[in-house]
Queue: 4 jobs
Job 1
Amino acid sequence: MRQFVENFGNLPLKLFSFELKKEMDLSHCREYYFQAISNSSWAHEGYLVVEKINTQDSDLMDLLKRLHTSFGIGVVLLNVQDMQKSQVLLNAKFKENLDHAMLGELSQNSPDFKDFLKTS
């Protein structure tokens, strides 16, 4: 972990997190958004990726914009039939500093993530 953190400033990469949901409406928006926040503390950019969002629902879109302004999680409307047609509704805000404690915890709990840190 220390070696990764020491070398990280020189590495040309960004870490992304993605919280995937099948469908989102106003009643689940806050819950899903805060799950995305919680699961992105280790990443430079975090996204909430949803297959079905009613972008015509002004209350839902206004809430997403307010949450984005406060917390910076991006939102992607996923097109599962044609990934190239997926739309970024809100771009994630880039976080310069990562949560090193969370990176350490992830490396202890995930052999894949630990291996990733070793290769970087």
Note: The first strand starts at residue 16 and ends at 24.
Job 2
Amino acid sequence: MLLPAQVWLILEPMDMRLGIDGLSSRVQHALGRSPCDGTAYAFRNRRGNRLKLLQWDGTGVWLSQRRLHEGAFVWPAPGETVFTLTQAQWQWLITGVDWQRLEARPMSDWKV
């Protein structure tokens, strides 16, 4: 599965029991968008330790899930304006690091 150029973060916490149909319905009703538009949609649970990514690949829908064993995904607060994440910031977000406070650099740039 390739990550699309655009990922929408759904700000309100979501019930992680929802599957493809339930999350697709949320995208359609809350955003007025088609879940099959080539964009990915990321959802987080109330505790912030689970993330689901809904993505259409042209022939079907992928639903991926990630769970942190410690900590929580740093998510924008409800009511924040539209913004963009760089690819590096997305990588930090999905690993559970506070992407809003770090200057993200590729791991190849790290000095040990």
Note: The mean pLDDT is 83.
Job 3
Amino acid sequence: MKTAWKVTMSAVLLAGGLWAGSMLNLTAEGAGVGSQPGTAEDPVVTKSYVDQQIQKALQGGTLSPPTQAPAATATNAPAATTAPTKAPASGSGDTGNTGNASEIVDVKPGQTLIAGAGAEFIVRAGKAVIYSQDANGVADLTDGVDLANGVAAPTNHLLSFPRDGRGIAVQDGQTMKIVVMVRGAYTLK
């Protein structure tokens, strides 16, 4: 008799759980929790369409509404990307990219890597010091401190250069080059 009671109670609890779960599912669907992809509220777009809209936005164009996305076909080619442009050099030396891409620059002893306004450097290898013509230094965004002229530039820290005329150089007495990852315009002197 105890076994029959246990089986009956298990069946009642299982049926009650299924009924309660189905009622919760119905109320959730009625509340609009699960919107269907591909509708006006949740449009489906292709990667090439998104890339195209990003390029238009970066070039100052207007954005099309997402409901005008092209249909996905097997012949859709990825959108072409524009290579970063080179900024004109101010003085002698090389000038780096002005886009969002990073570039690896080797700085030999006796050379100075001067940043353009808004450039960012990460010293990857070697011993470098901060170079600045004025009292203000360079922002070390990793530690949240300002590094003055002549202070050692820490390795693997993000350094931000808000104005032209500041940079980094190989530390005096070092015979090895420094390797710097650069984002933005720069001049190598």
Note: The chain has a mean pLDDT of 75.
Job 4
Amino acid sequence: MTDTPDVQGVQGEQGAQTPGKPVSASRTTLSHIMTANDTNLLGTVHGGVIMKLVDDAAGAVAGRHCGGPAVTASMDEMAFLAPVRVGDLVHVKAQCNWTGRSSMEIGVRVLAERWNESTPATQVGSAYLVFTAVDADGKPRTVPPVTPETDQDRRRYQEAEIRRTHRLARRRAIMALREERAAQGFDDA
């Protein structure tokens, strides 16, 4: 079992302690009603519209967690579970699942409900995004560790570590293949 981060914090570049922040400190929900301007050729909401809402909510969480600007480094495991329709009220719920030195994984759930009905919202999508905190020059900067507060937060933290391990392994495998092909004289540019 992987330990959760030290609630005391991490040591920054100048040796100062960066205190940890609880998951709840940056958790957010973004809500938006879908209109005809959001539709695709099938008459449902375009996946790109949902992805932008996901990126917006995740960016707000990342900025809140690190206390400044953060940029999207990657988005993976974006799953569309059900179509979203014109008139749906979409709720994008996001939280910081894991932190590294300068990166943060943000988990996002997308829920939709009819604007004029009192039925509960249903999950229509989910995604995981990695953000990097940056300074005024656009260079990576240290982020505070995230402190899971609940068993569900701890599970999400551990799952985020698994996803990170897979992302890094995939990147190493791709780079090794490219180097091997270059050594064989293939020009894959």
Note: The first strand starts at residue 10 and ends at 11.
